[in-house]
Prior knowledge:
Layout: E1 3-7, H1 14-23, H2 28-35, E2 43-52, E3 55-64, E4 72-73, H3 74-83, H4 88-109, E5 117-118, H5 124-140, E6 144-147, E7 150-151, E8 156-159, E9 162-165, H6 169-174, E10 180-181, H7 192-201, E11 202-205, E12 211-220, E13 230-238, E14 244-254, H8 261-271, E15 276-283, E16 289-297, H9 302-312, E17 319-326, E18 329-337, E19 340-349, E20 352-358, H10 360-370, H11 374-398
Parallel strand pairs: 1-6, 6-11, 7-10
Antiparallel strand pairs: 1-13, 2-3, 4-5, 8-9, 12-13, 14-16, 14-17, 15-16, 18-19, 19-20
Amino acid sequence: MKIAYFDCFSGASGDMILGSMIDAGLNAQELRNEFEKIPIPKVQLNVKKVLKRGISATQVIITAKKEKKSYRTLNDILKIVEKSRLEPEVKKKSKEVFKRIASVEAKIHQKPVKEIHFHELSGLDSIVDIVGSVWGFHQLGIDKLYVSKVNVGSGFVECEHGILPVPAPATLALMKGKPIYSSGVERELLTPTGAALLTFLGSDFGNMPEMKVERVGYGAGRDDLPHPNLLRLVIGAPSVNSGMEKVMVVETNIDDMNPQFYDYMIEKLLAMGVKEVYLTPIMMKKNRPGTLVKVICPSEKLTSVTGFLFKETTTLGLRWHEEERNRADREILTLGTRYGKIRFKLARWEGSVINLSPEYEDCKRLAVKKKITLKEVFEEARKEALTFLEESKTRHRLR
């Protein structure tokens, strides 16, 4: 498994993301070849080495011939990406990033999504930044991306809509629920494109994970600032202790809420990205039966979780504390059985498979479809799991 970490001490933009990946080993010529697959006017991807406050970095500058058309709509860009010869997965993810940007812009400016325009180089540089970043992460083989808290800058920026405060409204909307700060530098450090890519590609925001560093890349911003105007990309493998993580544990005691509300509460909290929610029966003062609600979540979600609990439950107070927990690496594996394909939850610890359990819903679906007992499907799944585990142990011993 390969993981990566973006250190956003000077924000992020599309060209800085591309620069950091090229600096970390992505082949620039292969990236240019990918752009040949997109039906857009010829663009130049200029790559050069620069120094920012004494640190060597890669700067990417995109240039193109000026077009008669001053802008492209979301629909125009989606058609361009769809007509390209890019890999299906790159197409799909690139379009999702564009849709996210257009969605927040539409809400901010009270316009239909179809009327949102991409003005920068008629949207060409946005296409290059987004498609290039999605393709680049696929090429680098990054399985999971972590992102630091992001320096967004301050002051004002001039754009199509006039003078806007920094961070721009679209940038703030895209970073909702993520940790940001300003070091006081009066410059737009985090752009909407940078925010869209960080939040789409990134899985966790906060501290750097424990990892064995393999490569480091620096992507340079165009401006010279009091600090190094760089985006740092660290690529490596999870360390032996990668299962260790810090989480926030939020608790409250409730004795006066309609029990039917708990189903809604749990569903909404899980949709917010918390790690666990569970209920414990307790006895409260005057021997009243109550419920202990416990939520385990990443530290950056503490504010949204506490806000939700105050609004959606009858609690009058919450308590929370930080804990460390150890977890196995998990993934979904699909195995074939004589009854059909079944997904398994695969757990690894220090590289070895420690558990493999079938998905209940898959087993239930096959039992109904084949008109056999659920017990038979589970037995077949168990056989496949045992075979996989034995083969996995053999491969591990041969290393």
